[in-house]
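dumping this here before i forget
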Amino acid sequence: MPKHNPPKLFLSTREAKAPYAAEHASAFLSKDLVNCRFQDARLSRRFQRLVRQLEARLGQSIPLACQDWNNTKAAYRFLSNRRVGEQAILSGHFQATLDRVSAVDGPILILHDTTEFVYYGESAQGLGVLNKGFKGRAESYAIRGVLMHSSLAVTTEGLPLGLTAIKFWSRSKFKGTNALKRSVNPTRVPIEEKESIRWLENLKQSTELLGEAERCVHIGDRESDIYELFCAAEQSGTKFLVRTCVDRLAGDGGHTISAAMRNAKVRATCRIRIRDAKRKMFDATVDIRYQTLQVQPPIGKQKRYPSLTLTVIHAQERRKPTGRAMVDWKLITNLSIRSRKDALEMLTWYAMRWKIETFHKILKSGCKAEASKLRAAERIVNLIAVFCILSWRIFWMTMMNRVAPMAAPTLALTALDMQVLDLLIHDTAPGRRRRTLASYLTKIARLGGYLARAKDPPPGNAVMWRGVSRLTDIELGFVMGAQLVGN
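structure:
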């Protein structure tokens, strides 16, 4: 075996990695990277390099991803630069999301949700208090971290098109909601003074970004049951579909929504497939009732906000099942529901809401955003913003395998990707090779541990992010080996 001079071998490694990384980024994430609006072109170049490095070592630490001290130091300086923020990092991604939305037809579902990033051990500067607890009977402790409220655009088939808005913040102090209610009536506090304002801000930012308010349907869980949100959607000319937690006044204010819905007849019975609290799939048969009502604002806000004509949908199981919670969805929307088919479509759209939780799971489990050792909240937020782009890419690949399996593989993969995958994993019937996107994404999943048996469901996000990371390592060795032997 020939001996190689270590400095020359290292040089070959860098030269092999650079063109591969550039090709890989330009093939898939170019629109999400090159259109970022930084104040300095050097920051833009460093950002693109950092994304490629983190993509090549998905879920690993910054030093491992950067491989040497110079690149690691440059990454730290980028993340701590005062001219770098989450909006600048994601500006190119937002523009790319707009392009992808414009390229598809039909309604666009904007999924909204909040998640926490918890950091244990030494507290970084600027981290807020997420919760409090007690060790034993006396010693108290605080759980620290940052909060993120994100808005994800998906098609009605569930294909994620990208983020449309994002907001990070931290709490200087924490006091339980029930304790707050003993000292102040929440309905008397202006929305501008609450954390809940994030729902309105993201709705406004998403609507302005996409520019097609009537085409967007904003979907949220019970935390989004905010009357100001309903009014903001009406003013913007956009649509919403949220799950309620408040029994609001209806009609002339003499009765509530629940009282009105007791007399509503069952319009349909359908079978839905959803996840339980342990993320296991199950089927449930629900009765569907819907009715258009005049909904009144809270008593303390009736001088500030008007009443709205909204449609209420109740989807409930007839009897409580054993071993899990009963399905009891109470939805409210400003969409027009004129038939049983419309009501079933609304339930299908709301069932898409869990996809933003999947996106958050990729951030935490795939990119390992909570494993960061950065010592300042601003740096952590910038790093999470970078991870958002990579997490969306993994999620998009997973769903493309299900939504558009017959698409061309060049939509997501380079020629090198396909060449290496064909060498690593041979088709079962080489004479009838299917060069489709699904066939190559399945090969990537097999690198991550997917068995690809006949009755197996399509590969999930976990095997996809492991497969992508492993494919990156293999391709680097493939390119470097080709250069070393002179091919």
